[in-house]
Amino acid sequence: MLIHIDLHDGRATSETIAQMLGTNPVVVRRMMAGLRKQGYVEAARGPNGGWKLARPLEDITVLDVHRALGSPSLFALGITADHPDCPVERSVNAALGTILDDAETRVMSSYGNISLADLIPAIKR
C-alpha cells in the first residue's frame, strides 16, 4: 500500500487502495490506522483527501510495517496449546518451537534490513 501511494501521485483513498487489494475500505482503514499511529502515514480529508506518506520510503523498513500491522504470525504452521497434557502435542511443540523461533528471528532480521525504497527497482523492472 505504501509503495502504491508513493508511486501514484503521493496520495490514495481507502477506496482506491481497497480496489487494488481486492478488499473492503474498512479493512484498509484498519491497516492504515496502525501505520498512522506509528507515524508512517497521514490522513487528509476533503476533496483531495486520502492517505499520504508521513516519511520517505527510505525511512520505513519491512519490519516497521510488520510491527505497525500488529506483528501478524509469519507461519501458518505453528505450535498449539489446545491440549497441554498431550505428550504428542508437547513433543511436536518442542521440536517445532525451536525451528520456528530461529526462522522468525532470521526473517525479522532480514525485514529490518530492507527499506520499502529497496523494493522499488524490482517493481519497476
From TrEMBL:
It holds the Pfam family Rrf2. InterPro entries: Tscrpt_reg_Rrf2, WH-like_DNA-bd_sf, WH_DNA-bd_sf. PANTHER family: HTH-TYPE TRANSCRIPTIONAL REGULATOR YWGB-RELATED, WINGED HELIX-TURN-HELIX TRANSCRIPTIONAL REGULATOR, RRF2 FAMILY. This is Rrf2 family protein. The lineage of its organism: Bacteria, Pseudomonadati, Pseudomonadota, Alphaproteobacteria, Hyphomicrobiales.
